[in-house]
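User: Hi! I'm working on a homework problem where we have to compare a predicted structure to a textbook description. Could you give me the structure for the chain below?
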Amino acid sequence: MSWTSKMPGLVSFAGLIGIAACSDRPNNSQAGPSQSPVVAELSGASSGPTETSRWNEIARTLSQKYAPSPIAGQRGFTYLSLAQYNAVVGAEADPIHASTRGAAAGASVAVLTWLYPAEATNLESLVQPAQPAGAPRFSGGVAIGRAIGAQVIASAANDNFNPVWTGTVPVGPRFWFSAAPPIAPRLGEMRPFFLTSGSQFRPGPPPVFGSQAFLQALAEIRHLSDTRTAEQDALAKFWAVPHGALVIPAYENSILAGLIREHGLSERGAAHAFALVNQAAMDGFIACHDAKYTYWFLRPNMADPLITTSVPVPNHPSYPSNHACVTGAFMAVSGAIFTTEAARLKELADEAARSRVVGGIHYRFDGEVGLTLGRTIAAWAVAHDVATGTPFPIK
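Assistant: Happy to help. Predicted C-alpha coordinates:
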Protein backbone atom coordinates (compact mmCIF):
# COMPACT_ATOMS: atom_id res chain seq x y z
CA MET A 1 0.00 0.00 0.00
CA SER A 2 1.30 3.45 -0.80
CA TRP A 3 1.00 6.09 1.89
CA THR A 4 1.72 9.28 0.02
CA SER A 5 1.65 12.87 1.14
CA LYS A 6 -0.52 15.34 -0.70
CA MET A 7 1.17 18.21 1.13
CA PRO A 8 3.50 18.46 4.13
CA GLY A 9 1.77 17.06 7.20
CA LEU A 10 -1.30 15.90 5.26
CA VAL A 11 -1.68 12.16 4.69
CA SER A 12 -3.46 11.37 1.44
CA PHE A 13 -5.65 8.29 1.05
CA ALA A 14 -6.40 8.90 -2.62
CA GLY A 15 -4.95 5.51 -3.48
CA LEU A 16 -7.16 3.79 -0.96
CA ILE A 17 -10.20 5.62 -2.28
CA GLY A 18 -9.35 4.53 -5.79
CA ILE A 19 -9.20 0.93 -4.62
CA ALA A 20 -12.47 1.22 -2.75
CA ALA A 21 -14.19 2.87 -5.68
CA CYS A 22 -13.97 -0.18 -7.95
CA SER A 23 -17.47 -1.58 -8.19
CA ASP A 24 -18.22 -5.15 -7.08
CA ARG A 25 -14.75 -5.74 -5.72
CA PRO A 26 -15.94 -7.40 -3.79
CA ASN A 27 -8.86 2.48 28.61
CA ASN A 28 -7.78 5.95 27.49
CA SER A 29 -4.41 5.20 25.98
CA GLN A 30 -3.52 7.47 23.10
CA ALA A 31 -2.11 4.38 21.42
CA GLY A 32 -5.58 2.94 21.03
CA PRO A 33 -6.87 -0.55 21.77
CA SER A 34 -4.86 -3.72 21.55
CA GLN A 35 -5.77 -6.27 18.91
CA SER A 36 -8.12 -8.86 20.37
CA PRO A 37 -8.10 -12.54 19.38
CA VAL A 38 -11.53 -12.08 17.81
CA VAL A 39 -10.42 -9.13 15.71
CA ALA A 40 -7.33 -11.06 14.62
CA GLU A 41 -9.57 -13.69 13.03
CA LEU A 42 -11.02 -11.15 10.62
CA SER A 43 -7.90 -11.18 8.48
CA GLY A 44 -8.51 -14.54 6.84
CA ALA A 45 -7.74 -14.51 3.13
CA SER A 46 -10.63 -13.89 0.78
CA SER A 47 -11.33 -15.98 -2.29
CA GLY A 48 -12.48 -12.83 -4.06
CA PRO A 49 -13.88 -9.33 -3.62
CA THR A 50 -16.83 -8.89 -1.28
CA GLU A 51 -20.45 -7.92 -1.78
CA THR A 52 -20.35 -6.08 1.54
CA SER A 53 -17.71 -3.69 0.19
CA ARG A 54 -19.63 -3.18 -3.04
CA TRP A 55 -22.71 -2.05 -1.13
CA ASN A 56 -20.65 0.12 1.19
CA GLU A 57 -19.44 1.91 -1.92
CA ILE A 58 -23.04 2.35 -3.10
CA ALA A 59 -23.87 3.83 0.31
CA ARG A 60 -20.96 6.24 0.01
CA THR A 61 -22.17 7.34 -3.40
CA LEU A 62 -25.68 7.96 -2.08
CA SER A 63 -24.33 9.93 0.87
CA GLN A 64 -22.60 12.18 -1.63
CA LYS A 65 -25.80 12.65 -3.58
CA TYR A 66 -28.09 13.36 -0.61
CA ALA A 67 -25.54 14.78 1.86
CA PRO A 68 -27.13 13.84 5.19
CA SER A 69 -25.59 15.45 8.26
CA PRO A 70 -22.39 13.77 9.49
CA ILE A 71 -24.32 12.35 12.45
CA ALA A 72 -27.14 10.96 10.31
CA GLY A 73 -24.58 9.72 7.81
CA GLN A 74 -22.71 7.76 10.47
CA ARG A 75 -25.97 6.33 11.80
CA GLY A 76 -26.79 5.11 8.30
CA PHE A 77 -23.42 3.42 7.79
CA THR A 78 -23.75 1.84 11.23
CA TYR A 79 -27.14 0.24 10.63
CA LEU A 80 -26.12 -0.81 7.12
CA SER A 81 -23.01 -2.62 8.35
CA LEU A 82 -24.82 -4.16 11.33
CA ALA A 83 -27.45 -5.65 9.00
CA GLN A 84 -24.80 -6.83 6.53
CA TYR A 85 -22.77 -8.69 9.12
CA ASN A 86 -25.73 -10.35 10.82
CA ALA A 87 -27.10 -11.37 7.44
CA VAL A 88 -23.81 -12.94 6.41
CA VAL A 89 -23.70 -14.89 9.68
CA GLY A 90 -27.29 -16.00 9.07
CA ALA A 91 -26.45 -17.26 5.58
CA GLU A 92 -23.44 -19.19 6.86
CA ALA A 93 -25.83 -21.21 9.00
CA ASP A 94 -27.53 -22.52 5.82
CA PRO A 95 -24.79 -22.72 3.16
CA ILE A 96 -26.72 -25.15 0.97
CA HIS A 97 -29.62 -22.78 0.39
CA ALA A 98 -28.10 -19.33 0.95
CA SER A 99 -24.95 -17.51 -0.13
CA THR A 100 -23.27 -14.88 1.98
CA ARG A 101 -23.07 -12.55 -1.02
CA GLY A 102 -26.82 -12.74 -1.44
CA ALA A 103 -27.33 -12.12 2.26
CA ALA A 104 -25.12 -9.02 2.17
CA ALA A 105 -27.02 -7.75 -0.87
CA GLY A 106 -30.45 -8.38 0.67
CA ALA A 107 -29.55 -6.64 3.92
CA SER A 108 -28.00 -3.73 2.04
CA VAL A 109 -30.90 -3.08 -0.28
CA ALA A 110 -33.33 -3.17 2.66
CA VAL A 111 -31.41 -0.68 4.78
CA LEU A 112 -30.41 1.63 1.94
CA THR A 113 -33.99 1.76 0.64
CA TRP A 114 -35.07 2.77 4.14
CA LEU A 115 -32.41 5.48 4.22
CA TYR A 116 -32.91 6.67 0.62
CA PRO A 117 -36.48 5.73 -0.41
CA ALA A 118 -36.29 7.68 -3.66
CA GLU A 119 -33.59 5.24 -4.81
CA ALA A 120 -35.67 2.09 -4.28
CA THR A 121 -35.94 1.11 -7.94
CA ASN A 122 -32.28 1.77 -8.66
CA LEU A 123 -31.20 -0.16 -5.60
CA GLU A 124 -33.32 -3.19 -6.51
CA SER A 125 -31.66 -3.28 -9.92
CA LEU A 126 -28.29 -3.72 -8.23
CA VAL A 127 -29.31 -6.94 -6.46
CA GLN A 128 -27.82 -9.44 -8.89
CA PRO A 129 -25.88 -12.69 -8.47
CA ALA A 130 -22.29 -12.66 -9.65
CA GLN A 131 -22.98 -15.70 -11.88
CA PRO A 132 -26.30 -17.16 -13.08
CA ALA A 133 -25.35 -20.61 -11.82
CA GLY A 134 -25.40 -19.33 -8.29
CA ALA A 135 -28.79 -17.63 -8.56
CA PRO A 136 -30.79 -20.00 -6.31
CA ARG A 137 -28.36 -19.73 -3.39
CA PHE A 138 -27.99 -16.01 -4.01
CA SER A 139 -31.79 -15.61 -3.84
CA GLY A 140 -31.88 -17.61 -0.63
CA GLY A 141 -29.27 -15.32 0.84
CA VAL A 142 -31.15 -12.23 -0.30
CA ALA A 143 -34.24 -13.44 1.56
CA ILE A 144 -32.24 -13.86 4.75
CA GLY A 145 -30.65 -10.45 4.28
CA ARG A 146 -33.97 -8.69 3.69
CA ALA A 147 -35.44 -10.26 6.84
CA ILE A 148 -32.49 -9.20 8.98
CA GLY A 149 -32.50 -5.76 7.36
CA ALA A 150 -36.14 -5.39 8.40
CA GLN A 151 -35.21 -6.30 11.99
CA VAL A 152 -32.48 -3.65 12.02
CA ILE A 153 -34.80 -1.02 10.59
CA ALA A 154 -37.42 -1.80 13.22
CA SER A 155 -34.79 -1.48 15.93
CA ALA A 156 -33.57 1.84 14.54
CA ALA A 157 -37.08 3.27 14.80
CA ASN A 158 -36.75 3.07 18.60
CA ASP A 159 -33.12 4.13 19.10
CA ASN A 160 -33.96 7.60 20.45
CA PHE A 161 -31.87 9.20 17.70
CA ASN A 162 -33.78 12.44 17.37
CA PRO A 163 -35.98 13.19 20.39
CA VAL A 164 -37.62 16.60 20.59
CA TRP A 165 -35.58 19.13 22.53
CA THR A 166 -37.57 21.53 24.68
CA GLY A 167 -34.75 22.90 26.78
CA THR A 168 -33.06 26.29 26.73
CA VAL A 169 -29.49 27.32 26.03
CA PRO A 170 -27.79 28.27 29.32
CA VAL A 171 -26.72 31.87 29.68
CA GLY A 172 -23.37 33.05 30.98
CA PRO A 173 -19.88 34.10 29.85
CA ARG A 174 -18.58 30.52 29.46
CA PHE A 175 -21.55 29.11 27.59
CA TRP A 176 -21.91 28.46 23.90
CA PHE A 177 -24.76 30.41 22.31
CA SER A 178 -26.64 30.55 19.03
CA ALA A 179 -29.70 32.21 17.59
CA ALA A 180 -30.52 28.95 15.78
CA PRO A 181 -31.58 25.72 17.52
CA PRO A 182 -28.55 23.65 18.56
CA ILE A 183 -27.67 20.57 16.55
CA ALA A 184 -28.50 17.23 18.20
CA PRO A 185 -28.64 18.43 21.82
CA ARG A 186 -30.04 15.06 22.97
CA LEU A 187 -27.90 12.76 20.85
CA GLY A 188 -26.14 11.67 24.04
CA GLU A 189 -29.39 9.92 24.99
CA MET A 190 -29.40 7.75 21.85
CA ARG A 191 -29.17 4.01 22.49
CA PRO A 192 -25.49 3.15 22.00
CA PHE A 193 -24.10 0.02 20.39
CA PHE A 194 -21.22 -0.97 22.68
CA LEU A 195 -21.41 1.61 25.45
CA THR A 196 -23.77 1.21 28.37
CA SER A 197 -24.79 4.86 27.99
CA GLY A 198 -23.62 8.04 26.33
CA SER A 199 -22.21 9.20 29.65
CA GLN A 200 -20.20 6.05 30.39
CA PHE A 201 -16.84 7.68 29.64
CA ARG A 202 -17.90 11.30 30.02
CA PRO A 203 -14.74 13.42 30.36
CA GLY A 204 -14.24 15.97 33.10
CA PRO A 205 -15.01 19.63 32.42
CA PRO A 206 -12.90 21.88 30.19
CA PRO A 207 -10.57 24.46 31.76
CA VAL A 208 -12.38 27.03 33.85
CA PHE A 209 -13.42 30.00 31.77
CA GLY A 210 -11.04 32.87 32.46
CA SER A 211 -8.40 30.63 34.06
CA GLN A 212 -4.77 30.71 32.96
CA ALA A 213 -5.17 27.38 31.18
CA PHE A 214 -8.18 28.66 29.28
CA LEU A 215 -6.56 31.97 28.37
CA GLN A 216 -3.47 30.20 27.06
CA ALA A 217 -5.61 27.89 24.92
CA LEU A 218 -7.60 30.84 23.60
CA ALA A 219 -4.42 32.79 22.86
CA GLU A 220 -3.15 29.88 20.77
CA ILE A 221 -6.24 30.00 18.57
CA ARG A 222 -5.98 33.76 18.23
CA HIS A 223 -2.34 33.39 17.18
CA LEU A 224 -3.28 30.72 14.64
CA SER A 225 -6.05 32.97 13.36
CA ASP A 226 -3.64 35.89 12.93
CA THR A 227 -0.84 33.84 11.33
CA ARG A 228 -2.67 30.99 9.59
CA THR A 229 -0.53 29.61 6.77
CA ALA A 230 -1.72 28.31 3.44
CA GLU A 231 -0.84 24.80 4.58
CA GLN A 232 -2.87 25.14 7.78
CA ASP A 233 -5.80 26.56 5.83
CA ALA A 234 -5.62 23.66 3.39
CA LEU A 235 -5.52 21.15 6.26
CA ALA A 236 -8.64 22.67 7.83
CA LYS A 237 -10.49 22.70 4.53
CA PHE A 238 -9.42 19.17 3.65
CA TRP A 239 -10.94 17.74 6.82
CA ALA A 240 -14.09 19.80 6.41
CA VAL A 241 -14.71 18.13 3.02
CA PRO A 242 -12.03 15.42 2.58
CA HIS A 243 -11.43 14.59 -1.07
CA GLY A 244 -14.79 16.22 -1.80
CA ALA A 245 -16.65 13.89 0.57
CA LEU A 246 -19.68 15.82 1.78
CA VAL A 247 -20.11 13.42 4.69
CA ILE A 248 -17.03 12.61 6.77
CA PRO A 249 -18.21 9.03 7.56
CA ALA A 250 -18.23 8.30 3.82
CA TYR A 251 -14.58 9.28 3.58
CA GLU A 252 -13.66 7.20 6.61
CA ASN A 253 -15.57 4.21 5.25
CA SER A 254 -13.68 4.56 1.97
CA ILE A 255 -10.44 4.23 3.90
CA LEU A 256 -11.71 1.12 5.67
CA ALA A 257 -12.97 -0.34 2.38
CA GLY A 258 -9.52 0.13 0.84
CA LEU A 259 -7.86 -1.64 3.75
CA ILE A 260 -10.35 -4.51 3.56
CA ARG A 261 -9.59 -5.03 -0.10
CA GLU A 262 -5.85 -4.59 0.30
CA HIS A 263 -5.73 -7.20 3.05
CA GLY A 264 -8.11 -9.62 1.32
CA LEU A 265 -10.75 -10.09 3.99
CA SER A 266 -13.46 -12.69 3.43
CA GLU A 267 -17.13 -11.75 3.10
CA ARG A 268 -17.69 -12.31 6.81
CA GLY A 269 -14.40 -10.64 7.70
CA ALA A 270 -15.28 -7.55 5.67
CA ALA A 271 -18.78 -7.36 7.11
CA HIS A 272 -17.45 -7.84 10.65
CA ALA A 273 -14.86 -5.09 10.19
CA PHE A 274 -17.40 -2.58 8.82
CA ALA A 275 -19.86 -3.38 11.61
CA LEU A 276 -17.33 -3.23 14.43
CA VAL A 277 -15.75 0.03 13.29
CA ASN A 278 -18.97 1.86 12.41
CA GLN A 279 -20.74 0.95 15.64
CA ALA A 280 -17.77 2.26 17.63
CA ALA A 281 -17.76 5.46 15.57
CA MET A 282 -21.48 6.03 16.21
CA ASP A 283 -20.85 5.54 19.91
CA GLY A 284 -18.18 8.21 19.50
CA PHE A 285 -20.79 10.67 18.27
CA ILE A 286 -23.17 9.74 21.10
CA ALA A 287 -20.54 10.15 23.82
CA CYS A 288 -19.19 13.34 22.30
CA HIS A 289 -22.62 15.00 22.27
CA ASP A 290 -23.29 13.83 25.80
CA ALA A 291 -20.24 15.83 26.84
CA LYS A 292 -20.95 18.78 24.57
CA TYR A 293 -24.38 19.36 26.07
CA THR A 294 -23.23 18.66 29.60
CA TYR A 295 -20.76 21.54 29.50
CA TRP A 296 -22.14 23.83 26.74
CA PHE A 297 -18.66 25.33 26.33
CA LEU A 298 -18.30 28.31 24.02
CA ARG A 299 -16.34 28.25 20.77
CA PRO A 300 -13.04 30.18 20.49
CA ASN A 301 -14.52 32.83 18.17
CA MET A 302 -17.24 33.46 20.74
CA ALA A 303 -14.64 34.12 23.44
CA ASP A 304 -12.60 36.34 21.12
CA PRO A 305 -14.60 37.87 18.23
CA LEU A 306 -11.37 38.82 16.46
CA ILE A 307 -10.66 35.14 15.77
CA THR A 308 -11.35 34.23 12.17
CA THR A 309 -12.19 30.69 11.13
CA SER A 310 -11.00 28.83 8.08
CA VAL A 311 -14.09 26.62 7.81
CA PRO A 312 -17.76 26.88 8.86
CA VAL A 313 -18.43 26.59 12.59
CA PRO A 314 -20.89 23.76 13.43
CA ASN A 315 -23.92 24.85 15.44
CA HIS A 316 -23.12 22.96 18.63
CA PRO A 317 -20.82 23.52 21.62
CA SER A 318 -17.06 23.30 21.36
CA TYR A 319 -15.99 20.72 23.96
CA PRO A 320 -15.01 18.11 22.93
CA SER A 321 -14.43 17.94 19.17
CA ASN A 322 -16.66 15.63 17.12
CA HIS A 323 -13.90 15.17 14.55
CA ALA A 324 -11.57 13.99 17.31
CA CYS A 325 -14.09 11.75 19.09
CA VAL A 326 -15.41 10.00 16.02
CA THR A 327 -12.24 9.77 13.94
CA GLY A 328 -10.34 8.73 17.08
CA ALA A 329 -12.73 5.82 17.57
CA PHE A 330 -12.96 4.90 13.88
CA MET A 331 -9.21 4.84 13.26
CA ALA A 332 -8.33 3.12 16.55
CA VAL A 333 -10.66 0.19 15.88
CA SER A 334 -9.46 0.02 12.26
CA GLY A 335 -5.89 -0.06 13.57
CA ALA A 336 -6.78 -2.91 15.92
CA ILE A 337 -7.92 -4.91 12.89
CA PHE A 338 -5.11 -3.89 10.54
CA THR A 339 -2.25 -3.71 13.01
CA THR A 340 0.40 -2.96 10.39
CA GLU A 341 -1.50 0.23 9.54
CA ALA A 342 -2.25 1.26 13.15
CA ALA A 343 0.39 3.98 13.38
CA ARG A 344 -0.72 5.62 10.13
CA LEU A 345 -4.36 5.46 11.13
CA LYS A 346 -3.54 7.05 14.48
CA GLU A 347 -1.72 9.86 12.67
CA LEU A 348 -4.80 10.38 10.54
CA ALA A 349 -7.03 10.80 13.60
CA ASP A 350 -4.49 13.16 15.16
CA GLU A 351 -4.54 15.18 11.97
CA ALA A 352 -8.34 15.34 11.88
CA ALA A 353 -8.32 16.77 15.41
CA ARG A 354 -5.52 19.20 14.60
CA SER A 355 -7.35 20.45 11.52
CA ARG A 356 -10.15 21.86 13.65
CA VAL A 357 -7.67 23.71 15.86
CA VAL A 358 -5.74 25.34 13.01
CA GLY A 359 -9.10 26.13 11.40
CA GLY A 360 -9.96 28.20 14.47
CA ILE A 361 -13.13 26.40 15.52
CA HIS A 362 -11.77 24.32 18.43
CA TYR A 363 -9.35 24.73 21.30
CA ARG A 364 -6.47 22.30 21.53
CA PHE A 365 -8.05 20.66 24.59
CA ASP A 366 -11.22 19.96 22.56
CA GLY A 367 -9.17 17.76 20.26
CA GLU A 368 -7.01 16.15 22.91
CA VAL A 369 -9.97 15.16 25.08
CA GLY A 370 -11.95 14.08 22.03
CA LEU A 371 -9.17 11.76 20.84
CA THR A 372 -8.86 10.23 24.29
CA LEU A 373 -12.62 9.71 24.46
CA GLY A 374 -12.74 8.17 20.98
CA ARG A 375 -9.87 5.82 21.69
CA THR A 376 -11.34 4.79 25.01
CA ILE A 377 -14.56 3.89 23.21
CA ALA A 378 -12.54 1.98 20.61
CA ALA A 379 -10.82 -0.10 23.28
CA TRP A 380 -14.18 -0.84 24.87
CA ALA A 381 -15.68 -1.86 21.52
CA VAL A 382 -12.81 -4.20 20.67
CA ALA A 383 -13.01 -5.75 24.13
CA HIS A 384 -16.76 -6.31 23.68
CA ASP A 385 -16.69 -7.52 20.09
CA VAL A 386 -18.77 -10.61 19.35
CA ALA A 387 -17.20 -14.01 18.85
CA THR A 388 -16.46 -15.13 15.32
CA GLY A 389 -19.66 -16.17 13.54
CA THR A 390 -21.89 -14.68 16.23
CA PRO A 391 -24.32 -11.91 15.24
CA PHE A 392 -24.22 -8.50 16.88
CA PRO A 393 -27.20 -7.76 19.15
CA ILE A 394 -30.12 -6.00 17.51
CA LYS A 395 -31.38 -4.02 20.48
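For your comparison, note the following. Strands lie at 4-7, 10-12. The chain has a mean pLDDT of 89. Good luck with the assignment!
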